[in-house]
Amino acid sequence: MKLAMIGFGQAGGKIVDRFLEYDDRTNSGIVRAAIAVNSAKADLIGLDRIPEENRVLIGQARVKGHGVGADNELGAEIAEEDIDEVQNAIDSIPTHEVDAFLVVSGMGGGTGSGGAPVLAKHLKRIYTIPVYGLGVLPGTDEGGIYTLNAARSFQTFVREVDNLLVFDNDSWRQTGESVEGGYEKINEEIVRRFGVLFGAGEVGDGQEVAESVVDSSEIINTLSGGGVSTVGYASEEVELNTSGGLLSRFTGGDGGGGDGLDAANTTNRITSLVRKAALGRLTLPCEIEGTERALLVLSGPSKYLNRKGIERGRKWLEEETGSMEVRGGDFPRDEPEVSAAILLSGVTNVPRIKRLQQVAIEAQDNMDDIQQESEENLEELVEDDEDELEPLF
Ligand SMILES: Nc1nc2c(ncn2[C@@H]2O[C@H](COP(=O)(O)OP(=O)(O)OP(=O)(O)O)[C@@H](O)[C@H]2O)c(=O)[nH]1
Ligand SMILES: [Mg+2]
């Protein structure tokens, strides 16, 4: 499917930049337009691929191009104040050629964390196409302010978008790596997983037509109904030789099926990839049981894909998730691997989110206490004043 991607804040901009690179490399055609919004000038300059005219600096009057320093309320305020500037950039994209918006942001900082939900709300008011969020949760070692920002941002972001796709940095960070090097790898993982999913609905001319190809409406239907989504992924290398070519005649495939491939092997490979994808590391770890809707996308050279494998994988997913709404299909690509990507939409049992919600509630209680305290202080002050003033009247 074709997306208009808007990266909000530094992480958001970097990830959209990587999506453009992925699009170029794989010819997947999912990024119809790319925009970056930030309050930090240096971060916008540091982007590689997003066109310069699509880089929008907000909050100049307030923070002079220096970012908001993880103040997410300030991030939200400047997004509201400068929403027209963001809209100007969006005006230049052909939204009639776009299937959905994808607003991408790191939820732990200030600019993206505060601004992305504001932008999502604005887009929903103006456009009829779906507005999805791709929100990145901070590592738990980043500190309290990042966790608190994420807790707040998550609450509003999930309410404003049609579906919030989540990636949790915390379960993907690797020890012993520099933060930057770590983000490089993490961003690659983000782009691969979401790229395969969104790319599935975008089989172009000249590509082979799949047996049961996934199209954009299936992605949209899986995401509709809202809530939080997570993505599982697994892949296996296969030989990429053109059918009827020299290599395939000599190697004879691995069992002597119709086109040199054993159908049972093909089916078994698919079913085990589906299990690995669903039971392995998800972008947001959770219990898959209780998932409301799911979409299974099998991609790879079409001779390695078959309907039976996909059907079995789909059935297995239905049993494991308990969902009555599991879609599945294939995405033929000439790459030397077969992969299974699984979108689990409307997941309910997510320990990380429960902890974040707890943090938000505690912070709210603290705020209420502080507020009440300051109100009491104020009352006392006024009373004191009244006491003192009384004799005068
Ligand atoms: N996956 C990923 N996460 C990142 C990356 N850069 C930052 N983050 C995460 O995103 C959070 C927010 O950071 P930024 O995006 O830099 O924050 P910002 O929106 O620019 O806001 P301010 O810098 O406070 O103005 C951090 O706490 C990290 O968890 C990145 O390249 N990839
Ligand atoms: Mg920043």
Write the layout of secondary structure elements.
Elements: E1 3-8, H1 9-26, E2 31-38, H2 41-45, E3 55-57, H3 60-63, H4 72-81, H5 83-91, E4 100-106, H6 111-126, E5 131-137, H7 144-160, E6 163-168, H8 179-200, H9 216-223, E7 228-237, H10 246-251, H11 263-279, E8 293-300, H12 307-321, E9 325-332, E10 337-345, H13 351-389
Parallel strand pairs: 1-2, 1-4, 2-3, 4-5, 5-6, 6-7, 8-9
Antiparallel strand pairs: 7-10, 8-10
Helix pairs in contact: 1-6, 1-8, 4-6, 6-7, 7-13, 11-12
Bound molecules: guanosine-5'-triphosphate and magnesium ion.
Descriptive report:
By secondary structure, the chain is of the alpha/beta class. The chain has 2 domains: 3-199, Tubulin/FtsZ, GTPase domain (Rossmann fold), CATH 3.40.50; 226-345, 60s Ribosomal Protein L30, Chain: A, CATH 3.30.1330. 47% of the residues lie in helices and 18% in strands. It has 13 helices and 10 strands. It has helices at residues 9-26, 41-45, 60-63, 72-81, 83-91, 111-126, 144-160, 179-200, 216-223, 246-251, 263-279, 307-321, 351-389; strands at 3-8, 31-38, 55-57, 100-106, 131-137, 163-168, 228-237, 293-300, 325-332, 337-345. The chain has a 10-stranded mixed β-sheet with strand order 3-2-1-4-5-6-7-10-8-9, sandwiched between helices. Strand 8, helix 12 (307-321) and strand 9 form a beta-alpha-beta unit. Helix 1 (9-26) crosses helix 8 and helix 11 runs parallel beside helix 12 (307-321). The chain is globular and about 90 Å long. It binds guanosine-5'-triphosphate (GTP) and magnesium ion (MG). Guanosine-5'-triphosphate binds at residues 9-11, 14, 39-40, 67-70, 106, 108-113, 136, 138-139, 142, 146, 169, 183, 186-187. The site of guanosine-5'-triphosphate has 26 residues, from helix 1, helix 6 and helix 8.
